[in-house]
Amino acid sequence: MNKKQKATFAAPCTTNRGKVNDNIPIIKKIRSLFMSGRKFYAKELNELAHTNDARKRISELRRAGLDIQDSWQPNGCKLYWINLNDNRQLDFWSKWEGVRYD
């Protein structure tokens, strides 16, 4: 009676090795759109930044410290814009300027 032995450890995970953030170009694009001073719907940001979920990128920018305001419109959509009166914005973006994403 030969019993097959089980593996003693799990195989290493092969995904997400370097944790390269492929969203940096999209985040930079959305940031530059907001810095233009315009107000955007999420649908517009999706089209302009060539992404499928701008709301997630807006959430990431907010967590990172960017002051993005929003309000519900009568048509049921949310309008997003940046509060440019906040001086913290300038300090935050200095760390993104040297990021390479090739």
List unreliable stretches of 5+ residues: 98-102
Shape: elongated
Distance between the termini: 57 Å
The strand count comes to 3
Classify the fold: give the CATH topology of one domain: Arc Repressor Mutant, subunit A
Order of helices and strands: HEHHEEH
Sheet-strand content, in percent, reads 5-15%
Q: What is the CATH level 1 assignment of one domain? A: Mainly Alpha
Q: What is the number of helices?
A: 4
Coarse structural class? alpha+beta
Mean pLDDT level: 77
The profile of the biggest β sheet is: 3 strands, antiparallel
CATH architecture of one domain: Orthogonal Bundle
Helix content: 25-40%
Q: Strands of the biggest beta sheet: in what spatial order? A: 1-3-2
Give the name of the CATH superfamily of one domain.
Winged helix-like DNA-binding domain superfamily/Winged helix DNA-binding domain
Q: Radius of gyration in whole Å, from Cα?
A: 20 Å
Model description:
The chain has a three-stranded antiparallel beta sheet with strand order 1-3-2. The N and C termini lie far apart (57 Å). By secondary structure, the protein is an alpha+beta fold. The chain is built from four helices and three strands; from the N terminus they run αβααββα. Helix content is 36%, strand content 12%. It has a domain at 24-84: Winged helix-like DNA-binding domain superfamily/Winged helix DNA-binding domain (Arc Repressor Mutant, subunit A, Orthogonal Bundle). α1 crosses α3. The chain is elongated. Mean pLDDT is 77; it is low at 98-102.
